[in-house]
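Regression check, nicotinamide-adenine-dinucleotide case 478:
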Amino acid sequence: MSLHANLVAGEWREAGDAAADINPSDTSDVVGEYAQADGKTLQDAVAAAKAAAPGWAASTPQQRYDLLDAIGNAILARKDELGRLLSREEGKILAEGVMETVRAGQIFKFFAGEALRIAGDKIASVRPGVDVEMTREPLGVVGLITPWNFPIAIPAWKIAPALAYGNTVVFKPAGLVPGTAWALSEIIQQAGVPAGVFNLVMGRGSVIGDALLDHPDIAAVSFTGSVETGAHVAARCAARLAKFQLEMGGKNPLVVLDDADLNTAVNCAVNGAYFSTGQRCTASSRLIVTAGIHDKFVDAMASNLSSLKVDDALAEGTQIGPVVDEGQLQKDLEYVEIGKKEGARLVCGGERLQRDKDGFYMSPALFAETNNDMRINREEVFGPVATVIKVKDYDEALAVANDTAFGLSSGICTQSLKYASDFKTKSEAGMVMVNLPTAGVDYHVPFGGRKGSSYGSREQGRYAVEFYTAVKTAYTAP
Ligand code: NAD
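Current build output:
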């Protein structure tokens, strides 16, 4: 099997060390072998990005548009193949893998357009005869660190704006999903990115992570991943006053009120909590349900969950794929035990499953009779595990929804305009959904959260300009 190399200064660079990419649906299937960068490779990648920065900063909007649009088109043209690769290495079902790939293509095309619209402001000075203008400039070299659960969409929503606004990139994908990251990097390379403008450095965070965070030539770091690693990224970047942005975990509430349409509520909850095997930062892990609909809702959830097909991500008919790896599966099962010990009632699921092929399969777990102080309601599990919290009315539901260290997304199922409007106003989350799952967002609007879920300016949409540019105010006298 050939080794997939890192991309440094426009050249594919082999490494002494390699890691195997394993299919979580079938552990006998090796997706590929991927180079593991050492410190020297990282240094060279940063040096290449630094050397390429002035040239790329001076590129015209048309050049950037052409490159990003070509990348977007190439991704869309290969959506089935890339979606398949993504599902094979990450474990989300094929339809989700293809959908995510399409989204990555759309993101590149959106930011191709944004490259044409980098505007400034001009305003009358308070002093006679003086001109004042505000412009946006690239930052220089940016370091992009991504998690394993969206192997192409998250890299896309960092790489595309970074390049659109004139920065050069050192991209470090998650160790569990190098295949999609490598394929995306090959597309970027084949689309004609100038040497050094985009560099791929694969490897473990613990090996090359700190070298990247501490590098004086990396002007800014955009990170998505766990709270623990995010806090580390923040500390290292702050220590050298580098700009940083963090997108981290969630414990997202979905409120279901008595007047909700039961089908809508169950569909939102099943989709939000369990699709993509519950491995979404926006997953609805806390289902906060008012007393009048509670029993009907729990029964309907149990019957819906028992009919879901958990199997090979690539097999036709599969609705829930495997957990990403053995470590995450053990963590999910441990939380099921914690929930039981805390006194929650396990309504269904929560067991390891055997399938034809050896993989990391787990039945979707639903807990009822939980309270918001339990660990299963306070800590992010990041697997197919959700809880029901029974509340008496809307006011209590809102209070419980907001009683969390996180604030990424939230949702409410109701037919009442009054409660929907109030929830949109008072929910302490970055994204609020009404009669929709807490996961599943548009690609052209801002994405991000509050409290322990996010730090810094928003990603995606036009708001991405805030992170990837610096503002300059220039005064001119005649
Ligand atoms: P993780 O924190 O373990 O890893 C994220 C990335 O950080 C990986 O590329 C990893 O190699 C790297 N890393 C690890 N140690 C590092 C170090 N010392 N220095 C620099 N980089 C280092 O997270 P994960 O397990 O890959 O992803 C799951 C987490 O991501 C969950 O908590 C989930 O909620 C979160 N997530 C958040 C969002 C969001 O937008 N809010 C989106 C997707 C996932």
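Comparison notes: The domain at 3-248+453-476 is CATH 3.40.605.10 (Aldehyde Dehydrogenase; Chain A, domain 1). The first helix runs from residue 39 to 57. No diff flagged against the previous build.
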